[in-house]
């Protein structure tokens, strides 16, 4: 999508996985999902080249936004504002 001044914006989710042994010694996979937001030329490249299952290296900063849902309740979303994305 594009902002009001026609700057490309790309949002997507990224999964990271970790493998650990539990108390019984069995391997357990734990997956975390991260919301990623990218602007400008990097966003255009992400929209063009990223597909589900493709590995990517994301570098940026964390940001928490406050917004209101349909009932008017305050909600919070934590995102990574990416400035580097490598495929």
Your description of this structure?
- By secondary structure, the chain is mainly β.
- It has one helix at 40-49, and strands at 9-21, 27-39, 57-68, 74-86.
- Strands 1-2-4-3 form a four-stranded mixed β-sheet.
- A hairpin with a 5-residue loop joins strand 1 and strand 2.
- The model has no long low-confidence stretch (mean pLDDT 94).
Give the helices and strands, then pairings.
Blueprint: E1 9-21, E2 27-39, H1 40-49, E3 57-68, E4 74-86
Largest sheet: 4 strands, mixed
Average pLDDT reading: 94
Strand coverage percent = over 45%
Q: Roughly how many Å apart are the termini?
A: 20 Å
Radius of gyration: 16 Å
Low-confidence stretches: none
Overall, the morphology is flat
State the secondary-structure class. Answer: mainly beta
Sheet with most strands: strand arrangement: 1-2-4-3
Give the fraction of residues assigned to helices: 10-25%
Helix-strand sequence:
EEHEE
DSSP strand tally? 4
Number of helices: 1
Question: Brief overview, please?
Answer:
Helix content is 11%, strand content 59%. The protein has one helix and four strands, in the order ββαββ.
Keywords:
59% strand, four-stranded mixed β-sheet, mainly beta, flat, 87 residues, 11% helix
């Amino acid at each position: 999508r594009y902002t009001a001044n026609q700057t490309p914006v790309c949002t997507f989710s990224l999964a990271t996985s970790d493998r650990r042994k539990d108390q019984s010694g069995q391997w357990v996979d734990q997956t975390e999902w991260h919301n990623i937001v990218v602007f400008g030329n990097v966003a255009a490249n992400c929209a063009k080249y990223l597909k589900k299952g493709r590995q990517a290296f994301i570098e940026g900063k964390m940001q928490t936004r406050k917004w209101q849902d349909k009932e008017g309740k305050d909600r919070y979303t934590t995102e990574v504002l990416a400035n580097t994305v490598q495929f």
